[in-house]
Amino acid sequence: MLQPFRLHEPTTPEEASRTLCDLGEDAGVYAGGTELLLAMKQGLLRYPHLVNIKAIGLDRIAYDDVGRCLRIGATATHRNVEHSPIVRSRYPMIAEMEARVANVRVRATGTVGGNLCFAEPHSDVATALLLHDAAVEIHGAEGRRRAPLGEFMVHAYTTCLRPGDIVLEVDVPALPAGAGACYQKVAFLERPSVGVGTALVPTPDGASIAEARVAVGCVGPTPFRVPEAEAALRGASLAEEAAFQTAARDAAQALLARCDPTDDLYGSRAYKRHLAVVLARRTAAGARNQLLAARQHRGGN
Fold first, then answer.
1. Per-residue confidence at 295, pLDDT binned at 50, 70, 90?
2. Minimal CA–CA distance to 259: which of 213, 208, 223, 298?
3. CB of 212 within 8 A of CB of 280?
4. What is the band of 300 on the pLDDT scale with cuts at 50, 70, 90?
5. What does the pLDDT read at residue 189?
6. What are the strands, taking DSSP E only, across the chain?
7. Which residues, 6+ apart, have CB-to-CB distance to 239 below 8 Å?
8. Share of residues in the chain with pLDDT > 70 (%)
């Protein structure tokens, strides 16, 4: 049962930070509420005050052509992102990932900023955004600051936010020119059991991989990049199937060595480790297929 609370509705980041500082631990930040209200109903969280930041106007989705960066406002919903023409044209992997988050009710009300702030270990959003070296813009009692997403998420359900902090936006740099990216997950309920993303950047001649990015979620307290898997893919031939499959297999094994999942409703430890290997190889193949298709298209023109 949801206990009574008082709702505060600031109209500026400064007012929101002041209100949160004044109320201290008695206040929580409210945006979409899909995670927060559920936890409050279950008695896992108790806030006599909620600070609604939706009136501040943080739902903008825009692309900075100069900085080649997508800017997603903290209160932009998953459905906003999924259907944004900017995201669909410039960041198709993110649009496709958002289209499979939870269910349509959650996507229509849940926000990107709220998802990241809740720091749920079983999250698609954070895993996919790590491939883009995303960063979080924060406003607090001492002004504005920026935190790389990998540093923003400290542990399960824990972020680097300080008392009085609110998230303003998530900045998502574009992948290097010509990159292919693929995110896949296995989910039996509304949260993923395992999610893996791979991005590949070709060399100028398109013959091999100049840069690789690999991220995995649900196999630890927070999603993370896997440098060892990225190193295994770097330099691999794009044209030679056998050589690429060998690199993908080595990358999957490197990812497996970093996986330390726990048994829960979303699967056993052994099964999640198996899924991580399968998805690592599939996403590497998916990203490679995009590069080969783009190369063929250029050759056809």
1. confident
2. 223
3. no
4. low
5. 82
6. 6-8, 27-30, 49-52, 61-64, 69-73, 135-140, 143-148, 153-155, 158-159, 166-173, 180-186, 194-202, 209-217, 224-225
7. 207, 292
8. 99
Q: CA–CA separation, 269 vs 276, rounded Å? A: 11
- Please state, in angstroms and as integers, the Cα–Cα distance from residue 290 to each residue in 8, 90, 117, 199, following that order: 47, 14, 32, 10
Q: Which fold has domain 180-300?
A: Enolase-like; domain 1 (3.30.390)
CATH class for the domain made up of 6-55 = alpha beta
The tokens for 150 are 């990998």
Q: How far apart are CA 30 and CA 240, in angstroms?
A: 51
Q: CB-side exposure of 49: number of CA atoms within 13 Å?
A: 15
Domain with CATH 3.30.465.10 in the chain: 58-173
- Reported as a single tens digit per residue, the pLDDT across 9-40 is 999 999 999 999 999 999 999 999 999 999 99
In this structure, are residues 209 and 203 in contact, taking their beta carbons and an 8 Å threshold?
yes
Amino acid at 29: V
Q: Which of 182, 195, 183 is nearest to 275 (CA)?
A: 195
Give the count of beta carbons closer than 10 Å to the beta carbon of residue 241: 11
Here the tokens at position 256 are: 């497996």
Q: Where are the alpha helices (DSSP H) in 66-170?
A: 78-83, 85-90, 92-98, 104-109, 112-118, 124-130, 149-152
CA 142 to each of CA 66, 72, 90, 148, 169: distance values in angstroms, whole numbers, following the listed order? 28, 23, 34, 18, 17
Give yes or no for residue 195 having a pLDDT over 90.
yes
Q: Tell me, letter by letter, the H, E, C secondary structure of 181-223.
A: EEEEEECCCCCCCEEEEEEEEECCCCCEEEEEEEEEECCCCCC
Q: How far, in Å, CA of 201 to CA of 181, rounded? A: 9
Residues of the chain with CATH 3.30.43.10: 6-55
Start and end residues for every CATH 3.30.390.50 domain found in the chain:
180-300
- At the topology level of CATH, where does 58-173 sit? 3.30.465
Q: What is the number of other CB atoms lying within 10 angstroms of the CB of residue 280?
A: 30
